[in-house]
Design a protein that fits this description.
Number of strands of chain A: 23
CATH superfamily of one domain in chain B: Cytochrome c-like domain
Strand content of chain B: under 5%
CATH topology of one domain in chain B: Cytochrome Bc1 Complex, Chain D, domain 2
Largest sheet of chain A: 5 strands, mixed
Shape of chain A: globular
CATH class of one domain in chain B: Mainly Alpha
CATH superfamily of the largest domain in chain A: Oxidoreductase, molybdopterin-binding domain
Strand content of chain A: 25-35%
Helix content of chain B: 25-40%
Distance between the termini of chain B: 59 Å
Largest sheet of chain B: 2 strands, antiparallel
Oligomer: heterodimer
Order of helices and strands of chain B: HEHEHHHHEE
Number of domains of chain A: 2
Number of helices of chain B: 6
Largest interface: A-B, 66 and 53 residues
CATH architecture of one domain in chain B: Orthogonal Bundle
Radius of gyration of chain A: 24 Å
Number of strands of chain B: 4
CATH architecture of the largest domain in chain A: Alpha-Beta Complex
Strand order of the largest sheet of chain A: 5-4-13-8-9
Shape of chain B: globular
Strand order of the largest sheet of chain B: 2-3
CATH topology of the largest domain in chain A: Sulfite Oxidase, Chain A, domain 2
Number of helices of chain A: 7
Radius of gyration of chain B: 28 Å
């Protein structure tokens, strides 16, 4: 290809991109054929780096839907861009955030964890001491109970999959089984509750049932192989597999064994689920069975009829995903989508399904089932049961409409 | 097997034996590295207050004293008399919970009065938590309870009085643990 032709193509591609006619980066790249020997082959590339970062062409893949209470920057949430991710793990830098008073700067040298209350020996642990304990590693999702809250609204929000469902992420968490430390402190086995408190400016606190603490609770020190990120609780956080995210108290500084729940602000005023009769459900801990198709999803445009790949995630705080059904005909028929191994309890489970689109308008849906037999409900059924005011624990079926133009949009169907 | 081989195998077994001598069953035994905490340390760290009043410190405050604290330290974010804006509304909303537009405040929603003390002491005012005295926290708690019509205008709040305050919405909470999840 001669030089002038090449630069014309380059200009044309640039114009197309600028005019917004092509949405995806992949299409834009496809407009220009590379030379037989790519420039990257003609000179040595960049050197090593101390801490790697994503390709510069992916800079737009960031946390999304960042919102904070008026006048604050750290009393709110940011969401994982689910529509740009694949597989079961969430990169630590894109893991969703939910803070009640910002991300504290904590020097591990001066951080301590106090265990007291109904114990024989109240104990203080340094972070260095915790690092010498036996550890377990587990892959689990973490989901804010306010995830998909906008779907309580009467009209479908004009938002991407990440913006509606991105308060869920999945990591490998490594840390000390909480049971070990409670036993060392001589915990009163009959004491039913433990207050967990963070060292942030909200001193975030929740009452945790002893049964969960002694079962699978972890004092997490590592996330995806490296020490916790500050926004995920550095230097140490509580991690309660499958339960609503805010109970996995970050920046953990204190555990008090008590005989009754403390009734903190975040288990009374917040994180209780107001029903339409004015009553509220309290202590709604496990996150229910749920799924969402991440590709194609709202904001994308299918490049034409033919074979496409549907990809999505499913999870349940009550166990393991056993089935994800997908409908490509507005819920008339459903097929089982293959689950991608490993399928782990209380972890995001990827499903993928090839789909031959005939070019007609339709609606895509996914419906998850877990090993307790629980099935993700249709949105209309869920709202009929819980009303529009519950704020938390929405887990109804998500629908995406596909127009003949290929445009994908959020619908209630 | 030659003598040399036999020696080699024996040596390997002895070495393996040494390596495992200090190992514990399944590796799940803690090294006991916690330092014993003193009562003074615990008293300084423990800021939680239960609904029975356990953990409430000495001190007292009235709605009148609380009005002054509120106007100086809270009003800029929670509005005059707790009406809200720019941040959460703290007063009113009674009778709205079953409507299409429920207003959840201390008065209409919160099940325990002790939570107001616990929460304000641990995290408010937002930009300067842990800056109020216990008397000031009692006072602003009394002020917010009075604005919501829950206590009288001269009722003093202290460690004895606060846990006795009955919140109007308390009986509308249904505890679903452990029935709905374990």
């Amino acid at each position: 290809m001669d030089e002038s032709k090449r630069s014309f193509l380059k200009r044309a591609a640039g114009l197309l991109a600028a005019s917004g006619l092509v949405a995806g980066g992949a299409k834009r790249a496809d407009a220009v054929e590379p030379p037989d020997v790519a420039p990257s082959m003609k000179a040595p590339g960049a050197g090593m780096s101390e801490y790697g970062s994503p390709a510069k062409y992916e800079v737009k893949v960031t946390r999304t839907g960042i919102r904070s209470q008026p006048g604050t920057t750290g009393s709110g949430a940011s969401r994982a861009p689910l529509e740009s991710l694949d597989g079961m793990l969430t990169p630590s830098g894109l893991h969703f955030e939910r803070h009640h008073s910002g991300v504290p700067d904590i020097d591990p040298a001066t951080h301590r964890l106090l265990i007291h209350g109904l114990v024989k020996r109240p104990l203080i642990f340094s972070v260095n001491a915790l690092l010498r304990y036996p550890m377990v590693s587990r892959i689990h999702f973490l989901e804010c109970s306010g995830n998909s809250q906008v779907l309580y609204q009467p009209a479908p929000p004009n938002l991407t999959a990440g913006q509606t469902h991105g308060l869920v992420s999945c990591s490998e968490w490594t840390g000390v089984p909480l049971r070990l430390l409670l036993e060392e402190a001589g915990v009163d086995r009959g004491a039913p509750w433990i207050l967990a408190e963070g060292a942030d400016a909200a001193a975030m606190s929740r009452s945790i049932p002893m049964a969960k603490a002694m079962d699978d609770a972890i004092l997490a020190l590592f996330q995806n192989g490296e020490r916790l990120r500050p926004e995920n609780g550095y230097p140490v956080r509580l991690f309660l597999p499958g339960w609503e995210g805010n109970m996995s108290v970050k920046w953990l500084r204190r555990l008090k064994v008590v005989s009754a729940p403390i009734m903190t602000k975040d288990e009374t005023s917040r994180y209780t689920d107001l029903q339409s009769d004015g009553k509220s459900l309290m202590f709604t801990y496990p996150m229910e069975v749920k799924s969402v198709i991440t590709r194609p999803s709202h904001g994308m445009t299918l490049a034409g009829a033919g074979l496409h790949q549907i990809s999505g995630i499913a999870w349940s705080g009550n166990g393991t995903i056993t089935k994800v059904e997908v409908s490509t005909d507005s819920g008339r028929t459903w097929v089982d989508a293959p689950l991608v191994a490993p399928v782990l309890p209380r972890a995001l489970t990827r499903f993928r399904l090839p789909w031959k689109w005939d070019g007609a308008a339709t609606v895509l849906k996914s419906r998850a089932t877990d090993d307790t037999g629980a099935v993700q409900p249709e949105r209309a059924k869920f709202i009929a049961e819980h009303g529009n005011n519950a704020v938390f624990h929405f887990h109804g079926i998500q629908a995406w409409s596909v127009a003949t133009s290929g445009e994908v949009k959020h619908v209630y169907a | 097997m030659s003598t040399r081989d036999l020696l080699r195998v024996t040596l390997a077994l002895v070495l393996a034996g040494c390596a495992s001598a200090g190992a514990t069953r399944g590796g799940m035994e803690g090294p006991n590295l916690g330092r014993e905490a003193t009562p003074a340390q615990i008293a300084g760290w423990d800021i939680s207050v239960g609904p029975d009043g356990a953990g409430l410190p000495a001190g007292r405050g009235t709605p009148a004293a609380g009005a002054t604290v509120y106007e100086q330290k809270c009003q800029v974010c929670h509005g005059a008399k707790g009406a809200g804006q720019p941040n959460d509304r703290l007063v009113g909303g009674q009778g709205t919970l079953a409507s299409k537009t429920p207003v959840r405040t201390i008065g209409s929603y919160w099940p325990y009065a002790t939570t107001v003390f616990d929460y304000v002491r641990r995290s408010m005012p937002y930009i300067q938590p842990h800056s109020l005295s216990n008397d000031e926290v009692y006072a602003v708690t009394a002020y917010l309870l009075h604005l919501n019509g829950i206590i009288g205008e001269s009722d003093e709040m202290n460690a004895q009085a606060l846990p006795k305050v009955k919140m109007p919405n308390q009986s509308n909470f249904i505890v679903v643990y452990p029935s709905r999840g374990k």
